[in-house]
Specification:
The chain is an alpha+beta fold. The chain is about 35% helix and about 20% strand. Belongs to the type-I restriction system S methylase family.
């Protein structure tokens, strides 16, 4: 296969402006690396700059349809084809790539830049301490497999179809999550407004135990007793598979005061994903750090209801406002967690909700398998398309 330098296949490869212009309430969109993710532009949030600043910034290199935006700072090495017909400028965290369309297809190039091999190359060629940078000079020297333009188009179309298939499965999973949340609101009302007038009590009064994991930093091992931290917990999900490990002696010491059991609630209390709840669904022992343990009264709560209540975005926002949590202080103390006011619908109604969620989860498992298959198909096609073996 013939390879050419990316610089020889493009008219322009340059980064956005380093000095940030003043933002305004209305004006020309100003995109950054936050607006490029997973082969597409994410346009739900961006800043604006004055039109005169935009005209200055784009005097020589104005982004156009079928150009490529390529992240170079922070979340580096992700590419998306420009498919919007309004004008915008780009920040220094993005590289603007203008392909020579008679030589290379934009979507073919995008898929190549997003392939695992190139992503790994980008990762290994960043500079800087802390926030890494992928310099334009490095990007210009990428070796790109050059095929006949019609072959490139065929490869791009094949990958586009495979990508659409996996995205469809991912969207279906999202819809099931949205259905579960709508059922929660329908049955229990807004957990902030409490328009249904449910009894209210502090979490500590309707729990048998609220504690947290170790505050120390034990040595991590490649095997032993599973060690769960905040990074292993997402809403409604605990990543047991990718946990750390500690020795049995360390575990026993931690487990004396913090003993998670089946269907207890784990609740992150520090870090970027603090105030996130997930039900424990395993019967074996493990230890924790930076995670609170809620042993709720099972005569009062169905754990699935409590999990959904704690994960409700409006409920979480109210907690953060009440406790002044945010910014640099991303931490909930045990005292604060114990004082959380929770709503107490009849247990029978909670159980009905849990049954509905169980049915949804069963359907989600089928879709997850389908999504895994479509993801594997996409990755195989991506590998095959660029002769990665």
């Amino acid at each position: 296969m013939k390879y050419l330098k990316l610089n020889d296949l493009c008219n322009v490869i340059t980064c956005g402006v380093a000095k940030r212009p003043d933002y305004v309430d209305e004006g020309i969109p100003f995109l950054s690396s936050l607006n490029v993710k997973e082969n597409r532009l994410i346009l739900n949030k961006y800043n604006f700059i004055k039109e005169e600043d935009h005209n200055t910034l784009t005097k020589y290199n104005k982004p156009e349809i079928n150009d490529i935006l390529y992240t170079r700072v922070g979340s580096y090495g992700e590419a998306a084809v420009v498919n919007i017909d309004f004008e915008f400028s780009v920040f220094v965290s993005l590289t603007l790539i203008k392909p020579k369309h008679n030589l290379i297809n934009s979507r073919y190039l995008m898929w190549y830049l997003n392939s695992p091999k190139v992503r790994d190359f980008a990762k290994n060629n960043t500079t800087g301490v802390g926030v890494k940078n992928l310099n334009v000079s490095v990007v210009r020297e990428y070796d790109v497999p050059l095929l006949p333009i019609e072959t490139q188009k065929a490869i791009a179309e094949k990958l586009d179809k495979a990508d659409a298939l996996r995205k469809k499965d991912q969207e279906l999973l999202k819809q099931y999550d949205e259905l579960a949340q709508s059922i929660f609101i329908e049955m229990f009302g807004d957990p902030v407004q409490n328009e249904k007038g449910w009894e209210i009590n502090e979490l500590n009064n309707v729990s048998t135990k609220i504690t947290d994991g170790t505050h120390d930093t034990p040595e991590r091992l490649s095997e032993g007793i599973k060690f769960i931290t905040g990074k292993h917990i997402r809403p409604f999900y605990i990543d047991y598979k990718n946990s750390d490990y500690v020795t049995e002696d360390v575990h026993k010491e931690i487990y004396k005061r913090c003993n998670p059991e089946y269907e207890d609630i784990l609740y992150t209390n520090i870090g970027v994903n603090y105030a996130t709840a997930a039900m424990n669904i395993v019967n074996y022992e493990f230890s924790m750090k930076n995670v609170a343990l809620i042993k709720y009264n099972r005569n009062v709560f169905n754990g699935r209801y409590l999990e959904y209540l704690l994960n409700d975005e409006n409920f979480k926002d109210r907690l953060k406002n009440k406790f002044g949590v945010g910014g640099a202080q991303q931490f909930l103390s045990l005292k604060q967690i114990k004082s959380i006011e929770v709503y107490l619908p009849p247990l029978e109604l909670q159980n009905q909700f849990a049954d509905k969620i169980k049915n949804i989860e069963a359907q989600k498992e089928l879709v997850k398998k389908q999504a895994e298959e479509s993801e594997n198909l996409f990755q195989a096609l991506l590998q095959e398309s660029f002769n990665f073996s």
